[in-house]
Amino acid sequence: MFSMIIQLLIVLAALYVGSRYGSLALGAISGIGLAILIFGFGLKSGTPPTDVIYIIIAAVTCAGVLQASGGMDWMIQVAEKILRKHPEHITFLAPLTTFFLTVLVGTGHVVYTLMPIICDISLKKGIRPERPCAVASVASQVGITCSPIAAAVVAFMTISNANGFHIAIPQVLMVTIPACLCGLMAAAAVSYKRGKDLDKDPAFQKRKADPETYKYMYGNTATALDKKIDKNAKGSVYVFLSALIVIVCFAFVQFFVDGETLKTITRIPKMNIVIQIIMLTAAACMIIFFKAKPKDAVSGAVWQSGMVAVIAIYGIAWLADTYFSNYMDVIQGGLSGIVAKYPWAMAFAFFLVSILINSQGAVVVSMLPLAYSLGIPGPVLLGILPSVYGYFFIPNYPSDIATVNFDRSGTTVIGKYLLNHSFMLPGLVSVIVSTIVGYLITCVIFPGYFAQFMA
Question: I want to staple 426 with a disulfide (CB 3.0 to 4.6 A). Which of 28, 135, 162, 446 is the partner?
Answer without folding.
Answer: 135
